[in-house]
Design goal:
By secondary structure, the chain is mostly helical. It contains twelve helices and no strands. The relative contact order is 0.15.
């Protein structure tokens, strides 16, 4: 039990800004902590949903949406948004593998990254407003939890593109079966509160996004980086919102 709690703390320490207790750190523990990566998503989604509901009691839905998006970015320290920005800067501005990797490692943000973030937040804002306000909180939870399973899939089906030391060195190690199964269970749990049509469509969209991105990055740089994993999570999260918003316009139950 102590070891599992330690792994849970690893997940929250490295993939959020939510304070946790003392860690017994090791690279192996950090890799195994991926089993609780979707749990971080569940908590982040709950934070966003709670802020949304709270603000909605006083302000308009637009203000509530902005507040919820900001709270979720704050809860993660913009970890995945940073990955998305670096991804677009690197692949947009680099012509060779070495140049792409160098740009993504640069701490400054370029034009491609800025534009990507603008489009990302405008898209989330628009999609949130198109989803029923009573259902949006549980959609946030399901999207954040399930989308965090896809980087695990990428780690186990591709290879790390960098050599030498980096912040995402632990992703060079393939993730054991137990960790994958536990992560899948946590990622899938919030989906039981949605319709089966939503789940099927979300899985299909996730597979398409993952397949396209995997083929693209392997062709360009020979594998993934931490920034690619962050971008994949964001692509899948937004894909979830697109699916739910589209199905909400149909006659399917929630």
């Amino acid at each position: 039990m102590k070891q599992q709690l330690n792994l849970l703390f690893h997940a929250f320490r490295f993939y959020s800004r939510i304070p946790v207790g003392k860690l017994e750190y090791s690279e192996e523990n950090q890799t195994k902590a991926f089993r609780y990566f979707p749990v971080v998503g569940i908590v982040v989604g709950i934070v966003g949903g709670a802020i949304y509901v709270l603000l909605l009691t006083v302000f308009s839905s637009s203000v509530a949406v902005i507040g919820s998006i900001a709270s979720m970015v704050f809860a993660t320290g913009a970890l995945h948004e940073d990955g998305l920005s670096d991804f677009f800067d690197g692949f947009g501005g680099g012509n060779t593998k070495e140049k792409v990797l160098d740009i993504m490692k640069d701490s400054t943000v370029g034009v491609y990254g800025v534009l990507a973030l603008i489009v990302l937040f405008l898209t989330k804002y628009s999609l949130f407003l198109s989803i029923d306000e009573h259902l949006l909180p549980k959609v946030m939870v399901a999207a954040h939890a399930s989308s965090r399973f896809m980087p695990i899939v990428m780690i186990n089906t591709s290879q790390y593109a960098r050599v030498g030391n980096s912040k995402a060195m632990h992703t060079r190690n393939h993730i054991d079966r137990t960790t994958c199964i536990v992560a899948l269970l946590f990622a899938s749990f919030p989906l039981v509160f949605l319709s089966w049509q939503t789940t099927i469509c979300v899985v299909a969209i996730y597979f398409l996004l993952y397949s396209f991105l995997k083929r693209y990055v392997e062709k360009r740089i020979g594998g993934f980086t931490g920034d690619v994993l962050g971008a994949l999570q964001q692509f899948c999260e937004v894909g979830f919102y697109f699916v739910y918003a589209a199905l909400s316009c149909q006659t399917y139950p929630s």
